Amino acid sequence: MKLTSKDKTFLCNLRGLLEEKQLRIELKDDGLKHLVLRQNYGDRIERVFGMTRQGVRWRFQRLFNEVYVEAYERVWWIEANFGTDLRHHAIAIAKQRIELRKRAAEPNQAFRNRFGGKQR
């Protein structure tokens, strides 16, 4: 599953708040383990994310307990059935794709900076 631009913005904002110790992520085990977002869900959080507290909880749930965990489930299933011999190849391919995306984004960012276009 690909992340949307809203997902990426959410993750950047979340990282900043985690670094500032405004929020933290914990593992909760109430019979079924899952990640939860803890601490201050006040007005500042709503302003930073540009959404309601329920919206913050929903996007966190989707990204961390669905997208992130499901990615590891898929990797586990493939490695359980085919072994781990291909892991280093998959990581090399992923790193290359990330680098190519970064390079492709640089001219777009330079254009937006120069001509004042709207950033995503």
Write the layout of secondary structure elements.
Layout: H1 5-19, E1 23-29, E2 33-39, H2 43-49, H3 53-82, H4 87-115
Antiparallel strand pairs: 1-2
Structure description:
Helix content is 68%, strand content 12%. The protein is mainly α. β1 (23-29) and β2 (33-39) form a beta hairpin. The mean pLDDT is 89.
Short description:
The protein has about 120 residues and is mostly helical.
Largest sheet: 2 strands, antiparallel
Order of helices and strands: HEEHHH
Strand proportion: 5-15%
Strand order of the largest sheet: 1-2
Oligomer: single chain
The number of distinct β-strands equals 2
Characteristics:
4 helices, 120 residues, two-stranded antiparallel ribbon, flat, mainly alpha
